[in-house]
């Protein structure tokens, strides 16, 4: 999208310079009025050539040749760039729509429950609940500020302090095993592969799953092992919250009925109940 805009800006600038040069040149060299000069410059650059106006002097003909050689490609470049810009915008909207559908499936089947698992052992959960208590009154500035705050945060998870259920690892392991096929389908999805941050999230979840599967007894972990798993959970937690917030904003802007349900099941609202992964 950025390259299309740059190409359009460059072509438009060259087109404007040539058009201005031609208009002024024909006014002085051929004695035409401003309207006739502008008209002749445009039909020359567009290769229409009605023949009702044509240069009489030699230098006027040279100027016409310069405008034909330089102007035709520029004129076509402007038209092509505008067309590409509209087509790419449409394709980008379709990609976002598909990504939203896949992301929505991920959070309904797995993501929200993972957030509920991790947030139980977040020492700063009260701050997260205050920051992410999303309501229908939120606007783009609210989401932007929340996203900025998340990116500046240092995420923490400490399973050694207990919480609701002192050892979450067996439950998370079982849940991730149940969701193995979903994770595999998601990582193979070409739409997801175009979204680097979501791909990183899936890789982090796969890594956490592998770490849990390679430990036969999660009920009694060595402190070093427990700290290592906490670090793996932190990696998933940080990526997961950012993806969740972006998905919430997209639903708020495009699908109010889905957003309404997401607000009622917000894992960072302590009054909400979040179901386990199924």
Describe the structure in your own words.
Mean pLDDT is 83; it is low at 273-278. By secondary structure, this protein is mainly α. It has 11 helices and no strands. Helix 10 runs antiparallel to helix 11. The protein starts with a helix and ends in a 14-residue tail after the last helix. It is elongated.
Present the secondary structure layout.
Layout lengths: L1 H28 L4 H12 L12 H62 L5 H7 L8 H13 L16 H10 L1 H9 L1 H4 L2 H18 L9 H32 L1 H9 L14
Percentage beta strand: under 5%
Extended strand count: 0
What average pLDDT do the residues reach? 83
Helix content: over 70%
Q: Unreliable runs, pLDDT <50, ≥5 residues? A: 273-278
Order of helices and strands: HHHHHHHHHHH
Q: Note the total helix count.
A: 11
Q: What is the global morphology? A: elongated
- The end-to-end span amounts to 39 Å
As a whole number of angstroms, the C-alpha radius of gyration is 30 Å
Class of secondary structure makeup: mainly alpha
Quick one: biggest sheet? none
Q: What's this entry about, in short?
A:
The chain is an all-alpha fold and about 280 residues long. It has helices spanning about 1-30, 35-45, 60-120, 125-130, 140-150, 170-180, 180-190, 190-195, 195-215, 225-255, 255-265.
């Amino acid at each position: 999208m950025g390259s299309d805009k740059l190409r359009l800006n460059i072509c438009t600038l060259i087109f404007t310079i040539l058009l201005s040069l031609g208009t002024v040149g024909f006014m002085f060299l051929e004695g035409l009025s401003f309207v006739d000069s502008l008209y002749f410059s445009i039909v020359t650059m567009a290769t229409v050539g009605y023949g009702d106006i044509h240069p009489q002097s030699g230098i006027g003909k040279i100027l016409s040749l310069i405008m034909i050689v330089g102007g035709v490609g520029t004129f076509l470049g402007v038209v092509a760039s505008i067309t590409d810009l509209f087509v790419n915008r449409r394709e980008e909207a379709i990609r976002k729509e598909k990504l939203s559908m896949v992301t929505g499936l991920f959070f309904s089947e797995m993501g929200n429950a993972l957030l509920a698992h991790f947030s139980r052992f977040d020492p700063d959960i009260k701050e997260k609940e205050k920051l992410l208590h999303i309501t229908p009154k939120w606007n783009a500035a609210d989401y932007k500020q929340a996203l900025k705050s998340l990116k500046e945060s240092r995420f923490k998870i400490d399973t050694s302090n207990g919480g609701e259920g002192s050892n979450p690892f067996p439950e998370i392991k079982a849940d991730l095993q149940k969701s193995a096929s979903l994770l595999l389908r998601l990582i193979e999805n070409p739409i997801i592969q175009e979204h680097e941050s979501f791909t990183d999230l899936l890789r982090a979840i796969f890594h956490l799953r592998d770490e849990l599967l390679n430990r036969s007894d999660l009920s009694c972990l060595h402190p070093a092992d427990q700290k290592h798993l906490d670090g793996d959970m932190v990696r998933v937690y940080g990526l997961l919250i950012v993806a969740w917030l972006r998905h919430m904003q997209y639903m708020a802007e495009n699908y109010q009925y889905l957003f309404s349900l997401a607000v009622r099941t917000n894992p960072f609202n302590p009054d909400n109940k979040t179901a386990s992964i199924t």
